[in-house]
Write a structure and sequence with these properties.
Layout (H helix, E strand, L loop, with lengths): L10 H17 L1 H4 L3 E3 L1 H28 L13 H35 L1 E13 L8 E4 L10 E2 L2 H6 L5 E10 L2 E9 L8
Antiparallel strand pairs: 1-6, 2-3, 2-5, 3-4, 5-6
Length: 195
């Protein structure tokens, strides 16, 4: 752990680094594992909790700074007053986003893996081709899902055989208060009648 902090770092600085790294790693889960959809209510509650935790974190940093147990490091010391003023909201916004990803998606997804109940619902799905670097190229989209980190991937051969436009679908998911994890999408595709 010596590479993460200086040998003379205080216990408070070590705690700060540990919390920061944990939250950063947790925020990677919804980016690379995209089958969970947080509920709208929980997304809003997670935002409020993230705002409160960010405010508490600022108070904690201020207390540590006043006690001499923490000080900004790196290029912060070389920044002028204007650059520091501009960096503060950028850093706070980034931290708020990362914390929100943990509270809205990572922790609820883990909860759903253990405690959620299995449900089946009826919806419609449309095929969608994507060109994103970290997304799958052949997907099924659900019209009721407006969460940017949700993808349901299919292979190219199945994608080419599906018709354009909405198709009836039966969703199998694990659902809890926090949201749902889509396990499968069974499509009902009508075959063209032969003449």
């Amino acid at each position: 752990m010596k590479g993460l902090w200086n040998p003379d770092a205080s216990v408070a600085q070590k705690w700060l680094i540990g919390i920061f790294l944990s939250v950063m790693l947790g925020a990677m889960v919804p980016i690379f594992s995209r089958g969970f959809i947080p509920s709208d209510v929980w997304q809003l509650q997670a935002l409020y909790i993230s705002l409160a935790l960010t405010a508490l974190g600022l108070v904690w940093l201020r207390v540590l700074y006043k006690r001499g147990q923490w000080k900004p490091a790196g290029p912060w010391q070389d920044y002028g007053p204007l650059k520091r003023l501009l960096m503060i909201p950028l850093c706070l916004g980034f931290w708020l986003l990362v914390l929100w990803l943990n509270l809205a998606a990572t922790l609820p997804k883990a909860y759903n893996q253990v405690f959620a109940t299995e449900v089946q619902t009826v919806s419609s799905a449309t095929k969608k081709r994507s060109s994103g670097r970290y997304s799958c190229h052949y997907q099924l989209k659900l019209p009721e899902v407006r969460y940017m980190f949700f993808e349901f991937c299919i292979d190219e051969q199945a994608f080419d055989q599906l018709p354009d436009g909405p198709m009836p679908a039966r969703l199998t998911a694990r659902q809890s208060y926090f949201g749902r994890s889509i396990d499968s999408i069974a499509l009902v595709v009508r075959r063209a009648e032969s003449e």
